[in-house]
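Appendix B, Record 12. Input sequence as logged:
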Amino acid sequence: MRNIVFARIDDRLIHGQVMTAWVHETKGNEIVIVDNEVAQDEFLKMIMASSVPAGIKVSVLTEDGGIEYLTQQADDNKIIVLAKNPHVIENLIDGGVVIEALNVGGMGARKDRSKLYRNISVSDSERQCFKTLADKGVRVFVQVIPEENSADIKQYL
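Logged structural output:
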């Protein structure tokens, strides 16, 4: 099993200072983006790879590819897993990937979403998915940047 040091939900996946802060905080040296659409888009994959600090390996995988990769025998890499929504994380876990904690970062407002916490919005199915993950023993918490205090998502569901 690969060494996952951090898993995060963020609509924007990799972006600027926030990602740099989490890479520094977790000492991660590999980022695995799990997103079926981005995995099929060569331009977006190039943008994602060019958006990370030097020396960080980036892989963009489909959900099936993520399960296959993340359940392989561990190497020395410290992996940060990024996804746009909690359903992806649930699918990874159901596929055998061990994720003990999930950071909820940026989830922006949309027509199908309502406010959960500050600037984080979720749909009804995403809200239920967070409950399911918590019931499976995953520590789901809101923390945009490492310097902020974390908040257990259960109190907002």
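The longest strand covers residues 4-9.
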